[in-house]
Amino acid sequence: MRRYGPALLLLLTGAAVLRITLFGDLYLRYVQAGLRPYLIVSGATLILLAALTAVLTQSRDDDHHHRHGPRTAWLLTLPALALLLFPPPALGSYSAGREAAQRAEQGIGAFPALPSGDPLTLTVGEFSSRAIYDSGRSLKGRTLRLTGFVTHGDDGTWYVTRLLVTCCAADATTGKAEVRNADALPADTWVTVTGTWHPKGALGSDAAWPPVLDATAVKQIDQPADPYEKP
């Protein structure tokens, strides 16, 4: 059976890719929604290659070659099997904490007007951009609502955090807002925080990062199907 190892590896990998794309939204943990068709094609192609490899292997008389093949080659199937049975979770507080906050004095200017009505739902990225770079101070006096997962800082501070993905999880960057006047929940808990902007620091400066939200309500929620924000 060792000679069918390459075919089995292709089959498991293809099945894992199809599982996370055809039967749910698990693929959104790793890539943008627009890449779903390419993942489906890739998964189907891998399964076809597995079938072709098995047929060619069966037709070859290569018993001597496989008698001397390394038994450890079967270990290569374990990562594919793990992906099929136990898909990794979305990136969370550990990934967010590894990225140092680096902000420069650039992009300062007036932003487009915000919709009327409170509370106003913003992404964490939108809130951060306006809090740090908006010369028109469009967040002032507004009741805001942000959704993300909990990360912890020093001295008891905590943040509502979201990872921004341009293409896939490998290029994720971090956006976060410090939450005040509310008790922290465990790291990686998903929450919706309602509150008001608390200005700090000069526009575009390191002192303005991360922006602050004075909370009036914190609601624990389930992780959304798509856990990442888009640029």
Characterization of the model:
Residues 131-228 form the DUF1980 domain. The chain crosses the membrane at residues 39-57, 69-86. The protein folds into two domains: 2-88, no CATH class; 96-220, Beta Barrel (OB fold (Dihydrolipoamide Acetyltransferase, E2P)). 31% of the residues lie in helices and 19% in strands. It is built from six helices and six strands; from the N terminus they run αααααβαβββββ. Strands 2-3-4-6-5 form a five-stranded mixed beta barrel. α1 (5-22) runs antiparallel to α2. It is elongated, with a radius of gyration of 24 Å. Mean pLDDT is 80; it is low at 97-106.
SSE topology sketch:
Layout: H1 5-22, H2 36-59, H3 63-67, H4 77-85, H5 93-98, E1 120-121, H6 124-133, E2 143-152, E3 158-164, E4 173-180, E5 190-198, E6 212-220
Helix pairs in contact: 1-2, 1-4
> What is the CATH topology descriptor of the largest domain?
OB fold (Dihydrolipoamide Acetyltransferase, E2P)
- Number of E strands: 6
Poorly predicted tracts of residues: 97-106
Bin the helical content: 25-40%
What is the CATH class name of the largest domain? Mainly Beta
Distance between the termini: 48 Å
CATH architecture of the largest domain: Beta Barrel
Give average pLDDT, whole number: 80
How many structural domains?
Answer: 2
- Approximate shape: elongated
Biggest β-sheet strands, sense, barrel: 5 strands, mixed, barrel
Number of helices: 6
Percentage of residues in strands: 15-25%
Q: What is the structural class?
A: alpha/beta
Strand order of the largest sheet: 2-3-4-6-5
Work out the radius of gyration.
Answer: 24 Å
Pfam families: DUF1980_C
Keywords: Membrane, Transmembrane, Transmembrane helix
Domain DUF1980: 131-228
Transmembrane segments: 39-57, 69-86
